[in-house]
Task: inverse folding
């Protein structure tokens, strides 16, 4: 029973490029969450999605960031025109309906040069 | 808004000894969940233990137990018989039950060192 999968594990982008981070939830889970962890900080919530719906995007920056969780395929966190300040570890978590805890993926470390 | 505070950025413990990690939180909700997550150098977030606010009994998972003081809004983690593999960052987290959003609110974390 595979856990939460994220790819790539490491991503290097130049300023101005686009970054696409992928997350496949645990089998049977329909809730996906994205968190960002800056160096020496805790995780900060970005967005909560269910299949084809954004439930809570209160933590998403208003510009350049978007997320989706299509009916088929992984959830995608997209960052357009990346800047140095976007360098961070991005974690995806998933949960099943009615469960209180979230299982985390290994994270994607984004470096913007 | 809910906040989670971990006031000790670092702690150390001798192998086989007991250590307690502190966490306080602020919320106006009466029902919620609290969690401790461990992040070893691999950076994987691992759920250690969880507590439901409506339950009076403190949660226990093997060597890990919590001291949940609802009135004081305190949620400390006790690690007994510390092992070298316990060395990691530990994050306290809060999740509301009501309101539709299931987001976790994390503290800044605490780095635990285990000395042999």
Result:
């Amino acid at each position: 029973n595979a856990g939460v999968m994220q790819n790539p594990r490491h991503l290097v982008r130049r300023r101005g490029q686009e970054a696409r981070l992928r997350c496949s939830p645990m089998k049977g889970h329909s809730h996906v969450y994205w968190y960002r962890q800056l160096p020496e900080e805790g995780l900060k919530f970005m967005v909560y999605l269910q299949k084809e719906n954004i439930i809570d995007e209160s933590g998403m920056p208003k510009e350049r960031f978007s997320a989706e969780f299509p009916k088929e395929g992984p959830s995608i966190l997209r960052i357009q025109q990346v800047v140095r300040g976007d360098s961070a570890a991005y974690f995806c978590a998933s949960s099943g309906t009615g469960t209180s805890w979230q299982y985390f993926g290994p994270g994607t470390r984004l470096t913007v040069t | 808004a809910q906040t989670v505070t971990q006031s000790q950025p670092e702690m150390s413990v001798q192998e086989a000894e007991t250590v307690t990690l502190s966490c306080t939180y602020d919320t106006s909700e009466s029902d919620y969940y609290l969690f401790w997550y461990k992040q070893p150098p691999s950076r994987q977030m691992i759920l250690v233990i969880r507590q439901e606010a409506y339950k009076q009994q403190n949660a226990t998972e093997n060597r890990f137990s919590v001291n949940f003081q609802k009135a004081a809004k305190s949620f400390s983690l006790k690690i007994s018989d510390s092992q070298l593999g316990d060395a990691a960052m530990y994050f306290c987290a809060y999740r509301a039950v009501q309101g539709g959003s299931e987001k976790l609110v994390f503290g800044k974390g605490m780095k635990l060192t285990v000395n042999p």
User: Anything to note?
Assistant: Chain B has a mean pLDDT of 92. The longest strand of chain B covers residues 88-96.
